């Protein structure tokens, strides 16, 4: 077991290196960049995310000189009319005065020490930005993942045990709705009904805490925090429980029909003991294997839209804005952290197998 853990920990480094390397060079090859973004700001022009993605932005109109020459005097769009020394200073500011491979090696050196540098456009160290945004994303990711598992696993077991019953049919309707309706639509419905849309005003619409949270007692701060988290967490739970509930049901149905279950029943073992003593540990292996992906999805992808709608300034929103704004230090630091978390959680998931089913061994003889 120790050898397996050591091997998995060792494999984190080449895997992380490969992911960072591929994304670094892909991003460098994409149209636009921090130099173009700064040039656009100097020119007072706005560049949309769609334009950046398609590379079709026009940061400024061509000058008469450009039209006469028939070509631009600068490799950057919108740079004509800006003194060359200013362009050189911008390149030096963002390390674009160095070759791409040198920038890549410098990034690897800094990231190996968890030094993510300073944001290009936020005038803050990336570490400080992460510390500032992390509590929001942790709140959304942890609470939603825990609640989804607490709801989906018992629901999936109940559906499997009562397969074909009226309860199974009605709960399947709820699962289908939860799987088919986009998460942002649930958020809008909750806002309309419970956050001062057209009906009730029971919950706040934005933020993680109230403006006067510093004046509240300890219990008041906890209740205020939970009060603000009700609608965002409800949105993510409704939008995320369906697939896990069906996965749990199907896993239990496969095990219920297995030969060892028939044998156990023939021996007179009670249904409850069969379900939770034999079927549970076998069926839960599939559910547990999806935990890392589910947590990372809730932590980043799932929380992005929720953060936008409920004005929660977390890691998901910061990473998205960094990608659209070509803020490379923030973008690559976010990718680095989420990838590292995912790889670490995959090891935790494997270790959890042995807790659910002690017969599983990741030692050299077993694997």
TrEMBL record:
Q: Where in the cell is it found?
A: Cell inner membrane; Cell membrane
Q: Where is this region: Disordered?
A: 51-80
Database matches in Gene3D superfamilies: MetI-like
Q: How does it sit in the membrane?
A: Multi-pass membrane protein
One GO BP annotation of this record: microcin transport
Entries under CDD domains matching the protein: TM_PBP2 (cd06261)
Regions of compositional bias (Polar residues) in chain numbering: 54-63
The question of whether DNA-binding is a record keyword is answered with no
Tell me which InterPro entries the record gives: MetI-like, MetI-like_sf
| The UniProt record lists the keyword Ligase | no
Domain of life of the organism encoding this protein: Bacteria
Q: Which UniProt keywords apply?
A: Cell inner membrane, Cell membrane, Membrane, Transmembrane, Transmembrane helix, Transport
Sorted alphabetically, the Gene Ontology cellular component annotations on this record are: plasma membrane
Q: Which residues cross the membrane?
A: 140-161, 173-195, 225-247, 283-310, 330-356
Query: Where is each ABC transmembrane type-1 domain found?
Result: 134-349
**PANTHER family, per this entry?**
INNER MEMBRANE ABC TRANSPORTER, INNER MEMBRANE ABC TRANSPORTER PERMEASE PROTEIN YEJB
Give the protein family.
Belongs to the binding-protein-dependent transport system permease family.
What name does the UniProt record give this protein?
A: Microcin C transport system permease protein
Q: What is the lineage of its organism?
A: Bacteria, Pseudomonadati, Thermodesulfobacteriota, Desulfobacteria, Desulfobacterales
């Amino acid at each position: 077991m120790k050898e397996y853990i050591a091997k998995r920990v060792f494999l984190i480094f080449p895997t992380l290196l490969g992911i960072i390397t591929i994304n670094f060079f892909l991003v460098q090859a994409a149209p636009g960049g921090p130099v173009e973004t700064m040039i656009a700001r100097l020119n007072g022009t706005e560049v949309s995310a769609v334009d950046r993605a398609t590379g079709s932005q026009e940061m400024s109109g061509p000058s008469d000189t450009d039209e006469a020459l028939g070509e631009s005097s600068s490799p950057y769009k919108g740079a004509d009319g800006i003194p060359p020394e200013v362009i050189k200073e911008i390149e030096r500011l963002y390390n674009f005065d160095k070759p791409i491979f040198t920038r890549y090696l410098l990034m690897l050196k800094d990231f190996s020490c968890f030094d993510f540098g300073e944001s290009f456009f936020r005038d803050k160290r990336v570490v400080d930005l992460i510390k500032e945004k992390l509590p929001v994303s942790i709140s959304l990711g942890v609470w939603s993942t825990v609640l989804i598992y607490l709801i989906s696993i018992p629901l999936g077991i109940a559906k499997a045990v009562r397969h074909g019953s009226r309860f199974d049919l009605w709960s399947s309707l709820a699962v289908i709705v939860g799987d088919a309706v986009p998460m942002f639509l649930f958020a809008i419905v909750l806002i309309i009904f419970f956050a001062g849309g057209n009906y009730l005003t029971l919950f706040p619409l934005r933020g993680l805490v109230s403006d006067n949270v510093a004046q509240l007692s300890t219990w008041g701060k906890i209740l205020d925090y939970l009060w603000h988290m009700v609608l965002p967490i409800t949105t993510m739970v409704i939008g995320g429980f369906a697939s896990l509930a069906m996965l749990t049901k199907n896993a239990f149905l496969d095990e219920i029909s297995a030969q060892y279950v028939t044998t156990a029943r023939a021996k007179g073992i009670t249904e409850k003991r069969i379900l939770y003593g034999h079927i549970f540990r076998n069926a839960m292996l599939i559910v547990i294997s999806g935990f890392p992906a589910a947590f990372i999805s809730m932590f980043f992808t799932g929380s992005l839209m929720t953060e936008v709608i409920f004005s929660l300034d977390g890691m998901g929103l910061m990473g998205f804005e960094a990608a659209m704004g070509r803020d490379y230090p923030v973008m690559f630091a976010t990718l680095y952290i989420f990838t590292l978390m995912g790889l670490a959680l995959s090891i935790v998931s494997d270790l959890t197998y042995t807790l659910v089913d002690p017969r599983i061994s990741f030692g050299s003889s077993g694997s």
